[in-house]
Design brief:
Distance between the termini: 6 Å
Structural class: alpha+beta
Number of strands: 11
Largest sheet: 7 strands, mixed, barrel
Helix content: 10-25%
Number of helices: 3
Strand content: 35-45%
Shape: globular
C-alpha cells in the first residue's frame, strides 16, 4: 500500500484552531513538534490511553469526501482535529504495523473514533458519519521530518 500526505495540522493548545503547516519535526515518543499533545496540553492529555496513542493522528481524505457526499457536511482538514490527512491509502490495516511517512517510522496503535469534543468545536453533526472511519492513532518510532507530499507506505 502506498499513499501520500495531503495536509498537516497542529494546534498549540487544547481547543485552539488547527494550523496548516507544510512540514514539521516528528519526535519519537512525543508527537509533532508544537502540537498540543506533544506539549502535553491537549484536551485528552490527562486521559489514560495506550502508550503513544496521541503522538500522531491520521485520517483519509477519501473519508472526508464520502462524508460530504453522504451527508452534505463538509469537514475541512483544519476542522477534523487529526494531524495528517492522507490520500490513496487505507489506514485501518496499518494498526499493529510499522509504516513510514516520508523519513519517519510510525506504528499504528489504535483507531481514532470521533468524539463529542469534535462536534462541540466544529458545530457540525459529524459524530455519526465518522463512526468506524475516524482515522487512526500512531506512535512515532523514529524521529524525522513529515512534509505535505510525503509518501506513506508499509
Amino acid at each position: 500500500m502506498k499513499g501520500e500526505v495531503v495536509a498537516i495540522h497542529i494546534a498549540a493548545e487544547a481547543g485552539a484552531p488547527m494550523q496548516s503547516i507544510a512540514e514539521t519535526w516528528a519526535v519519537a515518543g512525543g508527537g509533532l513538534s508544537g502540537d498540543r499533545y506533544q506539549l502535553g496540553i491537549g484536551f485528552y492529555s490527562d486521559t489514560p490511553t495506550d502508550p503513544g496513542a496521541r503522538e500522531l493522528t491520521l485520517i483519509e481524505q477519501e473519508t472526508l469526501d464520502a462524508v460530504f457526499t453522504e451527508t452534505g457536511i463538509q469537514l475541512a482538514p483544519n476542522e477534523h482535529r487529526r494531524n495528517v490527512t492522507t490520500r490513496g491509502i487505507n489506514l485501518d490495516p496499518l494498526l499493529g504495523q510499522r509504516f513510514r511517512i516520508g523519513e519517519v517510522t510510525c506504528e499504528g496503535v489504535r483507531l481514532c473514533p470521533p468524539c463529542n469534543h469534535l462536534e462541540e468545536i466544529t458545530g457540525k453533526p459529524v459524530l455519526k458519519p465518522l463512526v468506524h472511519r475516524g482515522g487512526i492513532r500512531a506512535r512515532i518510532v523514529a524521529s524525522g521530518w513529515v512534509r505535505v507530499g510525503d509518501s506513506i507506505e508499509e
